[in-house]
Fold each of these.
Amino acid sequence: MLLMLISTILLIFSFLASTLYLTRTLCSTSLSLSRFIQHLDTPDNTVETKFDFTIENYKRVDSILSKYPANYKQAGIIPLLDLAQRQHGGWLPVAAMDKVAQIVETDPARVYEVASFYTMFNRTKTGKYFLQLCGTTPCMICGSEDIKQTIESHLGIKNGETTKDGLFTLLEVECLGACANAPMIQMNDDYYECLTPKTTIELLEACKEGKPPVMGKWGSLPMNGQVSCEGPLGKTSLLSEPEPPKVEEGRFKDGKVDPASVKAHMAY
């Protein structure tokens, strides 16, 4: 009888401890999750806020929609959201999502679903330089925590925060696919790799001056001087330029593609 009583008490304590742990975990992550699961009105982001594409971007809207059959306009939601985000300084207000819904002739909720699912879309304002720091295993092993602490201490912000001058936003993210050059960050569209605390500070200071380092030949910039992901022996393979596939002249004239002939265009 005594053993049964002790077992019951232990079971109750175990349940309470598990409940407390779960509650603390949910509370500690609620701030980061809120950017993905709910909308909070701000003075510059309400359903009454106005948004419309520029004349130049409406030409891009037409180009995007021309890639899909007329009855599949919703297929253009992702590129249209990306276009709206770029026009609006790196983030999507509700009004921009509503405009996309109007253009593709669907319910706004359908667009909200896409914008809240993909982390490439920011539904709250970000800084001019959006720093996405990879914290997945290869980067973590190679020192991403040191890079994170360097950024936080140098800019005076924590993960998920923006500097008071609106220049920088820091967000730790999952794998960005540059494991060979860990640790790294994606700043806006650009990859800065092989970081150290010293080169991280140099990068931040260059951005403060409005002179972020230019990307290298292969579309990224290892900050240790190497080229792309070449090792210490330099380039050891792919020593010549591959010959591109031949495409007949005029195939994609004016950027227009007939959806019915996509397979032919892709040489299927």
Amino acid sequence: SEEEEGEATKTMAHVAGKWAAQLAARAAVTAKDSLQTNGRGALTVWKRFLNVHEHQGAKRMSDFGVNVPPGIVAFSVPEAVEAAKKMEQGSGEVVVKSQILAGGRGLGTFKNGLQGGVHICKVEEVEGLAKQMIGETLVTKQTGPAGKPVNCLYVAKKMQLQNEKYFAILLDRGSGGPLVIACSEGGTSIEDLAEKYPDKIIKVPVDINTGITDDQAAQIVEGLQVSGSQSEAAKQVKGLYNLFVESDCTMVEVNPLAEDPEGNLIAADAKLGFDDNAAFRQKELFGLKDDSQIDPREVAASKWDLNYIGLDGEIGCMVNGAGLAMATMDIIKLHGGTPANFLDVGGSAEKQQIVEAFKILTMDEHVKAILVNIFGGIMKCDVIAAGIVAAAKELELKVPLVVRLEGTNVEIGKQIMEESKMNIISAVDLDDAAKKAVAAIS
């Protein structure tokens, strides 16, 4: 009835808004910390930006005149040994850093038992360490229990650094442009700094059209309490800003931004994020993408132009449209189930994309049932139905499959599924589909 449809619309609007807020909050946390956890009970968040390894970021910063510790990337044990000989420069020691796209490396543990993903060591110790690090898996607080593969090491010069500071540039909704955040204290998380030194944190919004001014750079340098040359420090600040703008960054976080004995600012460690929307004009940057560090389901989804987010649940979802996808997940939860993912196939998916979407869903061994919820507008229900049948046959699905179709060519779509003789559970509406999916795994 019209009354029931009206109530359904209100319900969907409510749950869609709720999930939108939750996903936005998760994305905000992820964007700041570059987190990607994949243990059960943790959220794997699909990020809208490219992350690069430390050695790649250092090269990029150096290209913009930013001071970084000298270092050489090594993909093998012999390369690591040679790099150490070049980087020790009379001190007899170097820093050996595992290269993974996650934080907490220093306190991480390799699955082979080696403690720590970052080591300050003597040159003669590099070979033994490299053998235990390259090709192994490092587990940190940010990787989840599965860890991430260490394919290379960054062998860097051991720097005599002091006066650690914090520096970041983010996109700020409030000011509608880049926001520089700086603190004269650093070396720990910005949350800890905000708690311990709230009066030392400065925020400087920058007009994206004007760019950073001399006065703003001087204000930031003053806030950083630089002991060396103020003008040289201002050049470093401007270099980091130029990196942010010209590289289409979503984030530049330098922690710590420290000083050498002469008072020069050094970007000792940094996290850089780049906007995926700029891939067309940042081809060199996006050529650095390391798929080995990313959830294979996300990699597969991106290749087929599908939007995928892994969640901790048992009911796999395939939906067209982000709002409908979020509503579907909330209604599953409402009826006592748990969604295993967010998977939006968009409004123009072809048959093969649907098949690939099913492959991605079935890659998760925790999925006990699959719910397909399609409201066909541009997307035609018969195309979806053909893809569903092809996927069910090709993959020989072992889990219950619940399908709700509505919209363009819906009767043809239902006929295709019925004539396929496949074990497909049909649902009349979203509420019915969610109930049947939950019941299927009970």
